[in-house]
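Handout, section B. The chain below has 192 residues.
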Amino acid sequence: MGDNRFDEEEIGRDLESLLAPMCKNMTVNELLERYLKTRTGVRPNILMNYDFVKNILAKEEFGSNKMCRVKTSDAKLFLIKLQNDGKGSSTIKTVRGVLRPAFQMAVDDDLIVKNPFGFQLAGIIYNTEKMRQAVSKEQMKQFLKFIHDDNVYCKYYEVFYVLFHTGMRISEFCGLKLRDVDMKNKVIDINH
């Protein structure tokens, strides 16, 4: 009987042959470009995020790596490097938020077996975002009093009062119709 142990190199070659040939030379930057071509009809601010991430990757060595060679540890180390280079956690979340679906597309296309960005960020980078503080009740009262008593802004008092007390966005408020307000049950239906 011969040796029943598997030759790891042979298994690796067999697995690699099952993957699409274009994987061997495609860089992370090229994968990102391919992914972005599939993203049509997105809002302008999302397009700005895509360009932002493309610019970051263009400057980083990570972008020129062969995408089929990127391991989970490489992805984690890249995000840690970004933070060590002074990028904030919000920026890093944006970068990961674009690379994760790009690599998932590569998995779905059978270019790679596993998404190297399929991990949770907690414990990888630390949060540098500052907590936003809402206005205090006292500040709200002062603001509403100013609006109420001002000769110019007093006509907007009810608008600000409703916005403060409901938490509605201004766009939601502007979209309200009379039929959306149920005074009897004290309910506002935000449906558009």
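Note. The chain has a mean pLDDT of 87. Compare this with the example in section A.
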